[in-house]
Every structure is written in C-alpha cells, then in structure tokens.
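Data availability excerpt. The first of two example chains:
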Amino acid sequence: MEKFMRLISMSPLLLLLCLPLVLAGHDYGQALSKSILFFEAQRSGYLPHNQRVTWRSNSGLNDGKASGVDLVGGYYDAGDNVKFGLPMAFTITMMSWSILEYGKQLGHTGELGHAIDAVKWGTDYLIKAHPEPNVLYGEVGDGNTDHYCWQRPEDMTTDRRAYRIDQNNPGSDLAGESAAAMAAASMVFRHSNPAYAAELVHHAYQLFDFADKYRGKYDSSITVAQKYYRSISGYNDELLWAAAWLYQASNNQYYLDYLGKNGDSMGGTGWSMTEFGWDVKYAGVQTLVAKFLMQGKAGHHAPVFERYQQKAESFMCGCLGKGNKNVQKTPGGLIFRQRWNNMQFVTSASFLTTVYSDYLASAGRSLRCAAANVAPSELLGFAKSQVDYILGDNPRATSYMVGYGNNYPQQVHHRASSIVSVKDNPSFVSCRGGYATWFSRKASDPNVLTGALVGGPDGYDNFADERDNYEQTEPATYNNAPLLGILARLSGGHGGYNQLLPGIYCITCVFVALMCLDKHFYVS
C-alpha cells in the first residue's frame, strides 16, 4: 500500500510520461513494422493464410520424420536453411521480453498482434521439440551440408537430420535457454491464451529441471553445432537466466532462491561483461536480478543481489564509455565486438540499456559509474544513438536494415531472398546450381528481405555490400529480436507507468492501452 500511495503521489509525473516522447529524425514506427516482418521471411513449415511475405512458400515439411517426431515449423536462424535451437530460443526470449516491457507501445503502433504471432511461431516449434521431459531436439539440418548448397528453402535437398539432447547426452545451455524462452513467452499469453501460457510454463519447469539435473554443454552432445553456435560461456549463465525468467513467470520462491544461492558460484555476481547475446547471458541475468532488487523482492538475498546489480551497472557504464571496462566503438560510434555479425551485440546491448534506463527512472535513481553519476535518460540516449546509426546516421549514410531508407544492402547473404521466388519460377534450383546462377550474381536480390538487420560494418565503419561477404551482409533472427523492444520504446515513448510495478498504470494510459491493444490486452 505504501508503494501504491507513492505511485499516486507521482501521478502528475506519470501523466506527463503518458505523452509520447518526441524523438525526431527517423520513423521508428516504420522500422519496427519492417523488423517484425523479417521474421515471416524466416519461417519454416506450413505458412499460414495471413503470411505477409508472399514470395516465401512451405518448406521443411518432413523435418523430424526420420526420428519419429514432428519438427515442422520454427525459424531458420539466418541466411541458411538450418534450424539451430540455441539462437532460436534466445530469439524467442528476447521477443517476449520486448513485448513484456513495451507491449503497450507495440499496441500503439498496431504491431502487437504481429509480435505475438512471431513469438507463437517459435514457441509452437519449441513445444514440438520437447516431446519428453528429458528430451529436447536442438537442431534440424546440418550446417556443413547446408552451406555446401545454395538453395531456396522450398527446394532443399540437404540432410534434414534432427539432433537431440537427453539425460545421457546433456545440454544445460540449450535446455536452459529453451526454458527461459518458454517462461518468458508464457507471460505474453497469460491473459489472452491462459491454457497455452500454462502449457508453456509446464515445459519451462521440465526443461529447467532437465538442464539443472543433467549438466553439460549442448555442443558436446550435438557436435555438428560447434562450428556455428559453440557455447563458449558454458551453461551456468543459462541456468541463472532460466531461473530468473521462471521466477517472473511463476513467482515461485524456489527460483529466486536459486539465483541467491548460486549467484556467486555460477558467475552471476562475478563476471563483469561487455557483451550480451545468444551465447553469453550474464549481463541479461544481472539486469533482471537488479530489477528484482529494485522491486524490493530480494529479501535475505539482498547482499547477493546487490552484487548482481553492481555487475549490471558495470555493463551499462561500459556501454556509455564511463566505466572501468568499456566497450569498443567504431569511429562513427557503433559498438564493435567482432567483424562477423557485429550487429547482434549492438541490438542486445542497446536493449539492456533501454530497459535499465526505465527501471532506474521508475526507481528514481541515477546510474553510478566510475566517471560520474549518469541520468537514466543518458542510457536511453545511448540506445537511440545505436539505432540511429543502424538506420543510416553513420559515416556511410547506409541503413543496415533492409528496406528502410534509400540506401540499404541490396545483395544480402540469404538463400531465399537471393533466388527468384518459387512462386514466380517454380523450376527446381539445385544444390550447386544455386551457387552458379544466383549466389554469384552481381545484382540486387530478386526478393527484398524487408526488415532484416545485416551483420553491419567493420571496426572502422567500412562495409561491402556483396553477397559473398557473409560476415557483413548476412542477417539473423537474434539481431532483430531485441530491436523490437527498443524501436517500440523509441516510437511510443514511455509507457506512463512504473516499470518496476508493471500493471499499475496511470488511468489515462489504461484507457489508451485498452483501445490500442484491443483483444491482446494483458497485464504482465
């Protein structure tokens, strides 16, 4: 009640926050719409009647059949035709987090329904991939044979073998991330589809128990993944990450205690990170636990949670260049971690600074950095600077989102977009024939991969728009997933409520949200 009365006393401020934040320069709403559309181009399986990317068709219709399981559906991870479980699950987790934090803003733009559909396309597949409590299929297709071919998904002749983990061949990182995805997504559907939400959280419980009881790295069991998605960080970060999401989804004290008891031994309080992504989850865990602390939920774990928060804030300060351990940036100001698909780190880090900015603002706090105290607005400003760079405010004046602006990549390293649509020319494209005819073309893609965020420039802001330049021109689902939340926040402004007390909105905002969210309205 005391917290609620403090919220009421802040109502004039909250009413002001209900007004859109004016962020001129780019059309973030348009970029948001395009970034969500990209996921429809990555769909595998039977495409629905309302499919908007019409140059794609059904594919992978026998996936899992040889193993006696239905693995039709899900997402291709990038420009290939393989379904990799670890990055797919992370993609679902981050899309869900985007919706949970900024669902109302997504509703204002008319994209909430599309975002929820994108999550469900992924979770429907994850349910299929988890047919038994201690069995999880983590890959369909083999990267080696797939990369030997350049074919449309609709023409695939490559090996579609399915690979799994089980109690004799564990994969705590894969199972942990899948548990996190299921738990996060369960909250998205809690009010609009409670039965489906319950099914998801049930899978999440089982997957967490599987991950925790039978420990091991998934790429030691699914060795074909090592060349493409090797788990460098191990599995401790995913176990903590899954526990954090299960606590939010279930409010079960067991998972909060897990974070408190294992924070030190599993690295949650020890690792000071400068990256966040499909492999390394520590910064994400630290951000969520800092949120729990600011929500007053830590209880007797407060000393441990404070150490998590110190590492979370070290990450934030490092992004701003005001910490003891700062991220590297290009001369143009873009976060730079590596040449191969650097954008994945840009969007994931920017998402964390966006949500943490709102957590701090809701708590009435500033960020304590080594150089100085930082206002929450500076964290959001940093995220905006990264998004603006992506959308064209960079030394090359290039938009790295396909289809946004006037100068964007034309030769994307992506099999489906680079080959004429099967609907326009149904003639079979062979494995090697695709390389000879389509991959080697020095021309724009016949199908525009709208909304795809490509790998991006090198450490000196240089970029070569060439199809064989996979390090820079290949997109990925996990590049786009965190971007949904950032673009929703920049497009829709502040949600108008305390981000640490979701569900308690200012009265004006409730009515606006109900009108905008329509049947998808929920309280996370």
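And the second chain:
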Amino acid sequence: MRTTSTVLFFDENYDFVRFYWDLCMLLLLVANLIILPVAISFFNDDLSTRWIAFNCLSDTIFLIDIVVNFRTGIMQQDNAEQVILDPKLIAKHYLRTWFFLDLISSIPLDYIFLIFNQDFSESFQILHAGRALRILRLAKLLSLVRLLRLSRLVRYVSQWEEVYFLNMASVFMRIFNLICMMLLIGHWSGCLQFLVPMLQGFPPNSWVAINELQEAYWLEQYSWALFKAMSHMLCIGYGRFPPQSLTDMWLTMLSMISGATCYALFLGHATNLIQSLDSSRRQYREKVKQVEEYMAYRKLPREMRQRITEYFEHRYQGKFFDEELILGELSEKLREDVINYNCRSLVASVPFFANADSNFVSDVVTKLRYEVFQPGDIIIKEGTIGSKMYFIQEGIVDIVMANGEVATSLSDGSYFGEICLLTNARRVASVRAETYCNLFSLSVDHFNAVLDQYPLMRRTMESVAAERLNKIGKNPNLVAHREDDTTSEGNTINAVVNALAAEAEHVSLSDDSVARLSERSLGLALQPLQAASCRMAGVALPGLGVAAAALPRPKSEHDFSSAQALSAAPAAFHKSDAGIAP
C-alpha cells in the first residue's frame, strides 16, 4: 500500500477489496446485533460447540477489522476529494476516535472470565452449583458488551453513504435507517424483557411465570416478549398482564421511554424529510397561495384570476426556483455552461444561431431573459419605442398590421423585434401571441453591446431586417439610415473643407471672412441632413437654420481620412426564412 502523505484518490485495486470487506463486515454486524441478544436471552447452551465457534469467528473477524482500520485512509474534513494515507496520521486519528470502543466490543470477555473461574474437579457441579450458575449469568452479561458493535454499524452505513454515493437517495436512506433502528431497538427491548426475569430465576410474580413460559419453546418465548415490548413502546398497553413486580415495572418504563423517544424521532425526521423531498414544489404551492390571497385582497375579477392562475401553471410547471439567485452563486464559466445547456433547444431551432460564431451565440444566450405570454397577449404594439427583441422557443405569434390584417405568423426558432433596435425607430407592426409562447428576450443595451463586438453579425441582421421591411411594404432603406447619414455627412464636411482650403490659397481673406464663410457653407451643407433626419422621425421643421462653429483652416486633407472611410460599400443582404417581424 502506498504511504504517501496525501493523494487524491484510493488505489483502484485496494478500493475494490475494501468494498467487499466493508460489505462482509456490514452483514456480519447485522447478524451479530440480531443473533446475540436472542442467543443470550433464550438459550442456555452458551458453551455449545456451535455457539463458541460463532463467537470466536465473529471476534476474530472484528479484531482483524481493527488492524484493517489502521491501514485504511481517511478523508479530510475540509476536502472530501483528498484521502490521507500516512499510517501515523491514520493511527493517531483512529486511537482518538473509535479504537477503544471497537477493541472492547471485539474481546471475548465472557470466555476469558470463564477460563479464569473454571474448576476441573468432579465435585464442582455438586458443591459449587450455585456459584457456577452465578458465573454463567455474569458471563452472559459480559457477552452483552458485544452489542457495542452497533457503533460500527452506524459508521459503516455513514461511510457507504459518503464514499459510494448513496447520498443521492439520502432521503429514502435516512427513512430506511430510522425504521431499521426502531425495529432493532424493539428487538433488543423484547430480549431484555425476557433476560431480566431469566437472570432472576423466573420469580413467581414475573410476567414469564404468570404466562407459564418458563419451559416453552424459544420462539414462543421471544414472540410474547416482543409483543410485550412493542406494546410498551407504542404505548398501546402492557401486553397480556400489567407489571406485577418492581422489576417488571422498571422494564415497562424503560420500554415506554425508548418507544416515545423513537416515535418522536421518527415523527420529526419523517416530517422534515417529507418537506425536503420536493422543496421546489412546496415553494410553488406557497407562492400560488400567496398569489391567491393577493387576488382576493385586491378583489380581482374572476376572469383575471383564472388567467393569472393559468399563467403560473404554465410558467413554473408546478416547481418554483429562484434561478437568478442559483446561477448568481456559480462561477462565471459554470454559469455560462448551465445557461448554454438550458438554451440548447433554442440554439438548435434558430437558424440565425446555427450559422453564427459560437462565441457570439454564447454572448447572446447568457444575456437572454425567459418570458411567457398567454394567447391573445400583445407582445409588441405598433408605434411604440422598442426596447427588446425576442426569440421564440415554443409557440406561435402573428404579425398584425395597422389595419388589423395578419401579415404572417412566426413559430419555433424565429425571432422578431430587431428592426427598431437597429434603426432606433418605432415599431412598424404589432405582434400578438396566438398560443402559449415561451420566449427569450434580449434588451436593447445587451443587443448593442453584443453587436458592437461582432460587426459582421450586425450587418447580417441589418440585411435580414431590410428584407422583412420590404415584404411588409416598408422602406428597406430605414435599416441603412445610420450608415448612409454617416457617409453623407463625412462627404459634405470634406467638400466644405476642401472648398475653404482652395479659396484661401487663391484669395487673401481675413480670419473673420473665413469664419463667416465656414459658418455659411457648413450650415447650408448640413441643412439637408437635418431635414432628412427630421423626416425620418416624423417631425416637420420649417425654416431650418443651423449655426455651426467656425472651422480652423486645415493643414492637409489627411485629417479627414476617417470620415472618407465611412463611405464604404454596404454589406450584401442575407436571405432568411425566419419570417417577418417588426
């Protein structure tokens, strides 16, 4: 075995052997905890060959397990993925925790006691019969020390839950462990109900003597003892007869206390486990109850209450999560991976994403917001200023014109609302939900932030938007408004400056003349641009006049190279089957 101070994982071969060793130990522990009380209480052949062989075999295996524990790595408390394999650290930890309890429960104290007190003389059974009986009874009590192996059972079950990932079903495992522990305590209590009168020699007022069970078969004795113990523990009676002696009274009280404790533990754990079994559904029911109380407080109409209830049912599907809080606690990379996985169906269904750069898709998806619309809801209203665009994950929407006519319909994988984000204009059509629609929205700020990083995708969306405008009878040049204005303005300013430079070279003018000429020329040149901008905004400005600042005389024309570069050719239009949208 490796003895390095710390490694990340167990050795695979050793871990495989340890798994079967733990399994055998678990089965042997269960057998001991069930068989030992029965054998001690209901059988008198403590020195029979089969009983000695069983005890010696069990004690030997448990002593070997102590040695194995000295060679078994322990997991660090602050990092469960690291296992300490240093023998000194393992021994120090084991000696400080469970070593002495395991050692006491593994030593055959009853046999050691009998060895030191045996007498081989023939007169032993005649002269010392009473003393021998007391020795045997004391040996029985010493054999009860083996029941301390219960601590090993608890530890092994906990280790299996941690190491072998049984905690994935921890709710059911905890309920199962609790029920098994209650049954085991009831089994022990039944054996104790018979053991104490047996050690006393079955006095006449004991429940065993009253029921005449001294010479009965051991299974009948155990059945009546278990019935008596369970009656006490469940507080439903005292068995066939109430306690007649002081010993029976104390045993009855002990059984009642243990039963009440187990019942309280079971009730508390069961309630806690049931509540934690589906916490998201419980939170959804609490949210719906709160909404119902709010609707009743505000006295909302019945139809509106029905729509709100149906909205919650469709939106949350019976489970409520604070997804923003959950994702906000993750690392940036992990949060991005989760969002990409959640939106994988959307990315697969949108043709625009299928042909786009993966980095662009990831940047867009991480900024999307999930929204739900009911049938008949107006998602976009014509004439309003757009602040979002939408991607359809599931559902059907209609594009409605001003005259109420449905121009077209969009379904899964389509997107709409990008035109006004590209043009800064008002919505050119309304969008109405035909069915329940699951949409993802992208705000204008996130839209511009992403497209500024990917200018090629901006030109692609502009071409698609121009095509859609053309289909619904709108001017497709609205999309190229920004680019055309920038190009025209740059050409105009360049022409004015060139004229000023040429005139200054041939005619000697004063600085005031140059300023007045610059003001007049620039004002005349910018007047068509502002008029065009006003027409695009739907505002008429009669008698437009511009007062521009005086321009200094340039030394060369190279200062306006950036303005000339704006006159580049616009991008080619891209065909799209996504449909028509405002």
